[in-house]
Design goal:
The termini are far apart. The protein is built from three helices and no strands. It is mainly alpha-helical and 159 residues long. Its main location: membrane.
Length: 159
């Protein structure tokens, strides 16, 4: 009997002991347990990935909504600014027109006042000239006759 035979017999006995102690079942059970654990981790990873994709989609949707809302707010602000510009322009034009009309009215009033003042001065000068002319050409008797005639004329007009 050779040493290889004894080594072979020892190996068979060792494998028999291992089978008796159920080492292969323990190894397969450990491997199955590890496989189940890996399978569970893969399922959890799938679920987490799906949740992450849903969150990403939700955040992208919210971002698009926010961008749309921002664009809406910006366009509303631009429209409001345009309305305010037009309103300010209209008010400025109205103010300028009103101020121009007031200035023209003041100028017209000043012209009227100047014309009236010139007329009053002309009347005063004409009265002074007429008084001097009449005073130099009319004596007391003619003046008394003119006064009486004017007084009579006035009485007839008043009645």
């Amino acid at each position: 009997m050779d040493a290889t035979f004894f080594a072979f017999v020892g190996l068979v006995i060792f494998l028999g002991i291992l089978a008796y102690v159920k080492v292969p079942e323990m190894l397969t059970g450990a491997l199955d347990k590890r496989a189940n654990q890996i399978r569970n981790e893969l399922e959890q990873a799938k679920k987490l990935r799906e949740e992450a994709q849903q969150l990403l989609a939700e955040y992208q949707r919210k971002r698009k909504e926010a961008e749309t809302e921002a664009a809406s707010i910006l366009s509303a602000a631009e429209r409001e600014a345009a309305v305010l510009r037009e309103d300010a322009k209209a008010k400025t034009e109205e103010y300028v027109n009103r101020r121009t009309a007031m200035a023209e009215l003041k100028i017209s009033q000043a012209e009227t006042d100047a014309i009236n003042e010139v007329r009053a001065s002309a009347v005063d000068l004409a009265l002074v000239a007429a008084e001097r002319l009449i005073g130099s050409k009319v004596d007391g008797k003619v003046s008394n006759d003119l006064f009486q005639a004017s007084l009579g004329d006035l009485k007839t007009r008043l009645n």
